[in-house]
Amino acid sequence: MNPKKNFKTIFIALFLAGIVIATGHGMTLASNTGELPESVSPGVFAGSPMVPANFSDLADQVRDGVVNIQVTQTISNAELPRFRRHPFGEFFGPFGDSRPERKQEGVGSGCIISPDGYILTNNHVVENADQIRVKLATGKEFDARVIGLDPKTDLALIRMDGASDLKPLKLGDSDALRVGNWVVAIGSPFGLEQTVTAGIVSAKGRVIGSGPYDNFIQTDASINPGNSGGPLINLQGEVVGINTAIIASGQGIGFAIPVNMAREIVPQLQKTGHVIRGMLGVRIQDVTPELAKYFGLDEIRGAIVAMVVADGPAEKAGILQGDVIVTFNGQAVADSKDLPRIVAATPVGETVTVQVIREGKKISLTAMIGEMKDEDASENPDDSSHKSLGVSVQNLTPQIADELGLRKRTGVVVTDVEPGSAAAEARLRKGDVIREVNRKPVTNVTDFVREIEQTESGKGLLFLIERNQSTMFVTITPK
Fold first, then answer.
1. Which domains does the chain have, with CATH numbers?
2. pTM for the full model?
3. Catalytic residue check, 124
């Protein structure tokens, strides 16, 4: 046999076999009806719901509802922290100046939520602004004014003067978001208007130590200073979050306020300019594995009542120190982060059922919800301020510990020092970590509050603080 002819015959046979194999595989994936058999996964490919081919149509659909916000404010150096969402990360932009007072310009973003000019943005973008100027995607500019502010959630409602026939964005359902869903962030990072970035939902329910109602959506869609107040959009073109925060030392880590939280408070901001929240009247803390055993819990859940406020709704309902709150008005309390949000959203004067575990037994109690005052932090396990000291503190979170380079992750961190206060005179600084009060360990805000309240009036306090990875003692005499 001719070797060349034999080789040619073998090659043709293999080529035809390859066509049969490829054709057969294609026939397996798709039948004459075009449907996929149950046993075969469709896979991931560009253009599928899992991986969009591009975001151009989505960007075009929502761009008219996203605005650039320019703010002018007269500030002093002592007021600079108000432009920061998180005690240790920049969310509005870097600032620094030796002059005692000056005009400061800032930039943020917002989303239009009504045809007549209402805009949802962040509190830290417009708080204490002397002038607010809003620029639309079309280039038109309008003066705007603050309608309502809510520092506790870092949300604000402003309105453009003279604007009409605008294209508002549709508010979606942030509860329906799932980790891994595609999202798009739109805003003005560093003043670069109408910047579009895309990513996925990295996590939900994140607590970053920024306030009592932390419940952030985490995303790897790029968020930078100037994005604050802009929308986080799902693939249906709906707002699912308000971009708010970053970790300055991180990459691909941004945080947005769930839009369902904003949906709850916007009507109050529009009507009264502020938010009225419910109050139970307890200080709470997390259930640890050790405490779960001590309190006779079969699982780690609920919020331990560390203190009951005198004459508050909880005391009147019969809630005791040491009770573990596991449900509130039919809603499960998974941990101490859940309770403040649930209670705050409950209308003042409403009667609710609170289920607690006491000495291993479940007890149902009835409470009438009171109104939380601005100075009241009873349902807030992580944040406390003391006017006599002029200092505000919060629990040390893993994120803050990482940013400060701390190995020990318990304690309280100073988030604000009032100028001219006892704390300021003692040279306490924002970012100091309080390890002890009067030689007693402080592991959380509850410990801190207890030691302060147990100290005799007028008597000095001895703090052990950690600063720049070294420790020192500081004495403070309350005013």
1. 49-274 (2.40.10.120), 278-371 (2.30.42.10), 383-476 (2.30.42.10)
2. 0.66
3. yes
